[in-house]
Model the fold of this input.
Amino acid sequence: ISIDLGNGVTKVPEYCFRDCTKLETVTMHDVTSIGNYAFYNCNKLTSLVLPNSLTTIGNSAFDYCSSLGQVIIPISVTSIGSYAFDDTGRCVFLIESNINQPGWASNWYGSYTSSKTFIYSVVSAGVVGDFRYAKCENR
Done:
């Protein structure tokens, strides 16, 4: 149900937790990259706080994580692959940037945006916790 990747773990390999349909929470500390399909079809995963060390999210990394309600994407993320967050249901993305970054695939959020909310905002260095106070209604 819950996984803590622990300190010192820097990579989540491709397909690592694919189809872990009972996984609800994941804690990452030092992760810098999440591979393709790493959490594909973890359909009970409810929320996700990505660490400030993260730079890369692979293709379809969180595809079919249909219970995700909120994802905080830190400003450190410079690459997001195609369909990384496709089929995530009524998800709210809190993005620590004012625009999509150049290394983000144009379809990183998937093919349907009508059920998703995107909140872009620049966050000053050291103030990344501010997004955690955002309230998301009607998920």
Q: What stands out?
A: Residues 80 and 104 are 5 Å apart (CA to CA). The mean pLDDT is 86.
